[in-house]
Amino acid sequence: MGRTLWRALQWLGDTALPPLLLPGAAVVLAGCDLVGGEERGASTLERIRESGELRVLTRNSPTTYYYGRDGETGLEYDLARRFAEELGVDLRIRVVEDISSVFEAMEAGEGHLGAAGITRTPERRERFDFGPAYQQVRQQVVCKRGGEVPKDWEDLPDVDLLVLAGTSYVERLRQIRQVIHDLDWRTTDELSVEQVLLKIRKGEADCTVADSNIVALNQRYYPELVVPFAISEEQELAWALPRGSEELRQRLEEWFAELEEEGVVSALRERYYGHVRLFDYVDIAIFQRRVTDRLPQFLDLFREASKSYPFSWRLLAAQAYQESHWRPDARSPTGVRGMMMLTRRTAVALGIGNRLDLEDSIRGGAEYLNKMYQRLPDSIEEPDRTWIALAAYNVGMGHIRDARRLAERFDRDPDSWSTLKEMLPLLSQEKYYRDLPYGYARGLEPVHYVQRIRQYHAILAKQFDGEDRMARTEGENAAEGEEPTADR
Prior knowledge:
Elements: H1 3-13, H2 38-41, H3 44-51, E1 53-59, E2 66-68, E3 71-73, H4 75-87, E4 90-96, H5 99-107, E5 113-114, H6 122-125, E6 129-130, E7 135-137, E8 139-144, E9 162-164, H7 168-177, E10 186-188, H8 193-202, E11 207-211, H9 212-219, E12 225-230, E13 235-237, E14 240-241, H10 246-262, H11 264-273, H12 281-293, H13 299-306, H14 313-324, H15 344-349, H16 358-375, H17 384-395, H18 397-409, H19 417-423, H20 430-433, H21 444-479
Parallel strand pairs: 1-4, 1-5, 9-10
Antiparallel strand pairs: 2-3, 6-14, 7-13, 8-11, 8-12
């Protein structure tokens, strides 16, 4: 790209364009009080407290809000739930289809804030107030490996570009078109960004634009997706508020500052995104192939083993893949053997005579992981407890304790996996390990070990979640004497 073009695009990135007109007129729902507006904005916080509920608009997606095995979850949901607790009110979540719907509902007075992965852009600041940023993202061009992939911004007019309507992606493309005049794209308001990415994977469009956090998550499921370049500098994700919500905005800023100081925000980012930073296309592609051609013969054994321990079969299967790539006869140069790669000493302690016995190996691995899990202090909560237990399985409980000692020395939270993944690599440096009880350790290995297991686990969870729900429903129906149906 020429220097003149690059400077022009940088300038456009800091320049606000005229506000977009929303399609159609906003309609106020019956019984809903207006929560925005200049004349009422100063009392928005008081209205929330008087009504006893915080109304939050969001989207159903893995980066915002969704139902997991244990109920409602997602980064935006966790933050909103904590904020409602801080205010002493109930949280009322309303899920809408897309970002445009969030804005429409906000302007119609149907929500106190929008928590939906919203990029804080100059155009949007013309219409809404914003809370503090909680995450940095870039807009990235995403294409299919082996398909039509542009090499640079100037090649964008040569590809079939499909993007979500009413998003910051369209705003940015309009800015770029002021310099690259023949740039064009198709829009859709019927799909989610995840569904658009699936279309790219299937070759139904050449490329799309998506935020880097969304791309990073979906590359685990669709490793064929590639990112040739970004089309923006780092942009801030923040909650949107109705215009004039000054008191609410100030309270948000104070509260977010407290969370940042306590390490809560970084811990939540670690929970939802910590496993996506280590991406290996070849490894993920091979793993997905082996899910089909190798895993089925072991599924019943993993499911049976999970019944006796506080771990899902998917987690045990993910760990087994990291250990042996699901090879029952695996052997390492250090002498560990079998599906779960148990040491001779561990096998003896667990009463296992033959480490190559498939059932014994899986059961033994689950039992040993549970021992690590139970030995951790009660102060460590989920999901950190599971990640730290996995690290102990890999590196030993002694080194985990040393890493916790280092965390306390640095005045960090020793119960947080986010903290320990920074402390463990320090155990390979003499100035840190020389005065610790267990001394030197290859501390980066357990960090990568846990991150890879989390990647494999996320893929298995996505692929088998619907199947598992169906099995649970059929089991419940059978127990109640009902005929199983696929629609429950």
